[in-house]
Amino acid sequence: MKTFKMQCKYEIIRVLRNRYFVFWSLVMPILFYYIFTNVVNTNAPDKAEWQAHYLMSMTVFSVMGSSMMTLGIRMVQERSQGWATFIRITPLSDTVYFAAQMIGQSVIHMLSITIIFIAGALINGVSLTALEWIMSGLWILLGSLPFLAIGTLIGLMKKVETAAGVSNVIYMVLAIAGGLWMPLEIMPKIMQSIGKWLPSYNFGNGAWEIIRGNMPDWRNILILIAYLAVFMLLSKYIRRKQEAV
Amino acid sequence: MNKIVSLTNVTKSFQHKTAVNDVSFTIGKGEVVAILGPNGAGKTTTISMILGLLKPSAGEIKLFNHQPHEKQVREKIGTMLQEVSVMPGLKVREILELISSYYPNPLGIQQLIELTGLTNQDLKTRAEKLSGGQKRRLSFALALAGNPELIIFDEPTVGMDITSRNRFWQTVHQMAAQGKTIIFSTHYLQEADDAAGRILLFKDGAVVADGTPAQIKSRISKQSVSFFVDPEMSLEKLYLHSEIDDIYRKNNRVYIQSSNTDRVLELIFQEKIGARDIQIERGKLEEAFEQLTSGAKEAI
């Protein structure tokens, strides 16, 4: 138990000391949020709703990024620098190691969600009911699972540079095409129909529904679960192939 | 039964080559064993299998009479791998605390500092900012963190300067004196000769010699008796004795090769050949090593 706590604690410290994490997961989303709700005039019919909507978009953007990049790149780093091998020789069990990483990551996500929500409340005075704040926070926390699975896929790559490049591209494509930067409705028809099937759109849409007083769509939940299953199987399959050498 | 490590008919084949071929040996408590051999002899593969990082293709490996990957085994071993491993994002002290927490009876940080030569300044440094030598010391400290009974080093002194090397061996001897079992691989002959009580000499994936440095020397490189003698003197009489393997002249000295140098001395005086400045030379481990491993170079 002591080991587990210690492992969680240091997993969290490591993420917080990572400058890329602080920049991409906290500074960028808050900056974007400020720009797209204050500087750029978006002509939104319902200003308060747009401000809440975009706050969700940016929180989803942040958590999606740290799920894929922080986790994935760190896995590659640990493997390429021999740390993963060293850990295998210590008595630390794989279960504890994996669980601590997941818990560490979740704590980090809760922190990001809280900070960005507070930023929204301070910058634009976004006000939601307590239930809406909690529900949307929980949705974002749980909805990050398929993206963590993408993170483990990226984590299977051999070089840190490749992993960083690939994850960046996937991140940006998913964010834009999934309507996190600007609503899907203002995009061309074809983009809209593709976007609706992307995990990022379904992740975001759950939160957008919640702040409008609805529950996330079943469709959103099912699609996210399907993606989670596919990415996990894929990751397992590739790992087995890599180990077969 | 104080067997700490035992390998029985262990073979490891990769796709195109057999890295380790039918190796068997046991290592008892308190031994300091060098796995010596040229590059590509199968040292690292053998160590990886002992550590449970690789599975043997055939044969069996037991540590403390258990499988290498079992938790109770892992709690008793410490290791320093060839590749320097660091955990980015954490300070040295934090890493040491974290790894120590995995073990039931860890050594304290203070002890680790004394044993490895890490400084208090190093403790506050983030792992990724350490110099090569500092990283090596950190790896050494990590190997000792769990107060292990069996310590395994893969090419430990590569990249160490002379001071750290001396300090390293000093600590290793200290550990050995405490009854810990130590296995290290090296391709430095001198190191194996100086530090180990036993050498396992590897060549082409097999153990070609196993014994104390002295035993290996006497077995492999022949001893000889050399002396000055009047050039007119015939040495033919000596050829008649079967104990003598070879006689040759070099720099005006006569060299007589034999595994029984005492008998050679007796013969020299018996035959009254008037030998002066007699010396007995033992083969150097260096030569034995080259004799044994020279074939490997031709293969490449």
From TrEMBL, chain A:
GO terms for cellular component: ATP-binding cassette (ABC) transporter complex. GO terms for molecular function: ABC-type transporter activity. It is found in: Membrane. It is a multi-pass membrane protein. Residues 20-242 form the ABC transmembrane type-2 domain. The chain crosses the membrane at residues 21-40, 52-73, 107-127, 133-156, 163-182, 221-238. Keywords: Membrane, Transmembrane, Transmembrane helix. This is ABC transporter permease. It comes from Neobacillus vireti LMG 21834. The lineage of its organism: Bacteria, Bacillati, Bacillota, Bacilli, Bacillales.
Automatic annotation (TrEMBL), chain B:
It comes from Neobacillus vireti LMG 21834. PROSITE patterns: ABC_TRANSPORTER_1 (PS00211), ABC_TRANSPORTER_2 (PS50893). Residues 5-229 form the ABC transporter domain. GO terms for molecular function: ATP binding; ATP hydrolysis activity. The keyword Membrane does not apply. Pfam families: ABC_tran. InterPro entries: AAA+_ATPase, ABC_transporter-like_ATP-bd, ABC_transporter-like_CS, ABC_transporter_ATP-binding, P-loop_NTPase. This is ABC transporter domain-containing protein. It comes from the Bacteria. SUPFAM superfamilies: P-loop containing nucleoside triphosphate hydrolases. Keywords: ATP-binding, Nucleotide-binding, Transport.
